[in-house]
Amino acid sequence: MNDTLAAAQAIAAARRSRTPLKPLAAELAPRTEADGYRIQEALRDLLAADFGAPVGYKIGCTSAVMQHYLDIPHPCGGSVFTKGVHDSGVSLRHSDFVRVGVECEIAVRLGRDLAPSQAPFTADAVAHAIESYLPAIEIVDDRYMDWQSIGAPTLVADDFFAAACVLGKPVARSAAPDLLEVAGRAVINGVEVGRGTGADVLGHPHHALAWLANHLAARGKSLRAGEIVLTGSLVKTIWLTAGDTVLMELAGLGNVSATFS
């Protein structure tokens, strides 16, 4: 067995058992983020049996507040799986996560492929591939013994905190407001705890999508029609306790809610 697969199996075992991930053994731990993405690809295949087929991606560290919080000065990507996609109003079990948090995001659903042969992609180019925008709650899970010391390459290998998402109703691209002016509010148990705008996501969420398309193209991978992409949080991660009710309001795109019982 090669080290990449062994590392992916160790991470998959922790994910399945909801056991906090310890630093990987020295011979398995990725030394670079490129190593981390190779492990992530192997992990995607291993987790599909448990969490369903991959249906898209999340992008982390796209806003200054999140880059400062995680001390990582650039975007990072992770996978979204079928069983982790929920409709607004869902009730989830707090105990199904190690340490669950939520983020306020603008998601996109693609209407056509973004193939590697079309790279490099610009924000304007990827915008034309978007079918619709959706208000979204990204559900993240701090499933690490200590994420601050485990290192960015291992976080990347483990889908960069990705756990699930909750999606509101789609808004067609032709009917959507200017994303720069979309104001997002994070409301927990009726109390606002954070706010931001689309401009906080790499200057525009389309820049985040272009980053992902180019990142995948560099590895010979495509974004495909029908896939969902979570473009990054407008607010700092909010960690939850059992019983919390979450509402994300994205002006012009609508609201999305969930409860963690």
From TrEMBL:
GO molecular function: 2-oxopent-4-enoate hydratase activity
Keywords (A to Z) from UniProt: Lyase
Protein name in the entry: 2-oxo-3-hexenedioate decarboxylase/2-keto-4-pentenoate hydratase
Pfam (any one): FAA_hydrolase
Domain of life: Bacteria
GO cellular component: cytoplasm
Residue ranges occupied by any Fumarylacetoacetase-like C-terminal domain in the UniProt entry: 93-259
